[in-house]
Amino acid sequence: MQPLPPGKIEISPQVIATLAGRAVTQCYGVVGMAPRRLHDGWAEVLQQENLRRGVDVSWHGHQLIIELHVIMEHGVRIAEVARNIIDVVRYQVEKVTGLEVAQVNVTVEGLHQGKTVPQE
């Protein structure tokens, strides 16, 4: 029996964005994801099913770059939380997909006072 010829596996950017969005929301100090485009300077917290709207996934050559738009809890150390987000997202995406993540960028779109965010 001859081995099958190698095939091709493609992972859509939406899948990577969903993985990244879920990883972010599990990080300490993160209230939620924000949409990539703010309306009148106001950041809204995205609901669980819309997390990928706060994530941009792009390829530059063979390099996977992930851009994250987050809302953090007021009073946290932004730089520490952002570094943790970068580490967690890189680890989760690489572990699940087998792809190498070249860069993870975090944009803090807002700070939220209090632990709970009213969902509309």
What does this structure look like?
This protein is an alpha+beta fold and 120 residues long. It has one domain: Cation efflux protein, cytoplasmic domain (Alpha-Beta Plaits, 2-Layer Sandwich). 28% of the residues lie in helices and 28% in strands. It contains two helices and four strands. The chain has helices at residues 13-25, 78-97, and strands spanning 30-33, 55-60, 63-73, 101-112. β2 and β3 form a beta hairpin. α1 (13-25) packs across α2 (78-97). The longest helix has 20 residues, at 78-97. The relative contact order is 0.23. Mean pLDDT is 84; it is low at 116-120.
Features:
single chain; 120 residues; alpha+beta; Alpha-Beta Plaits; four-stranded mixed beta sheet; 2 helices; 4 strands; elongated
Brief summary of the model shown:
Helices cover 28% and strands 28% of the residues.
Q: DSSP helix count?
A: 2
Overall pLDDT metric: 84
- The domain count comes to 1
What global shape is seen? elongated
Question: CATH homologous superfamily, by name?
Answer: Cation efflux protein, cytoplasmic domain
| Helical residue percent band | 25-40%
